[in-house]
Model the fold of this input.
Amino acid sequence: MDGNAGDPLQWYYEIPPVSRTYMTAAFVTTALTALDLVSPIQFFLNWKLVMQGQAWRLLTTFLFFGTLSLDFLFHMYFLARYCRQVLHCRLLEEGEFHRKTSDFVFFLLFGAVLMLAAQPLVSLPFLGSSLSFMMVYVWGRRNEHVRMSLFGLLPFTAPYLPWVLLAVSVLVNNSGALSTDLLGIGVGHMYYFLAFIYPEVSALTKQATRAHT
Done:
């Protein structure tokens, strides 16, 4: 076994750059509020304040996961694990994001824009959990045969991962995370359909059309 396998610093630098940057920004944002250096009020999404020039709220709404709590650590753990695997493409069947950092960034921007558009309808002040659930959902759908377990106790396959996490998150948050995580799952499904399902259906339709002409 590698003697550095348990080195936190090595683990941190092995995380791909986009995921590492996002995780670091989220941790720093949360740490600032935990130390009472900045109020969470400065981070939440308020469109009226955005229109008044506080454009940073369009970004910080994705960075604040709440106070340093079990739920925060829960989201950071799965973000590090599954977002990392998406970017490295270690478990994806076809390697969609392998050496395609720009595609991964587009994937994140796609989700962020849709969530910002939906925010007035769901009235969520923070969207970080939604974004992390979107990533986990797409990873799970692209690895449908991967077998997993929850803390080594409950076995399931990868497509059920977001639903298992949703159940745990609801238990931790006393149902407060339901709409937040469902938004991420919904946007993740939209990306999955447009990126993977629709192109296949369209190609099959074109082949069928050519066969009958």
Q: What stands out?
A: The beta strands are 147-150, 154-157. The two ends are 61 Å apart (CA to CA).
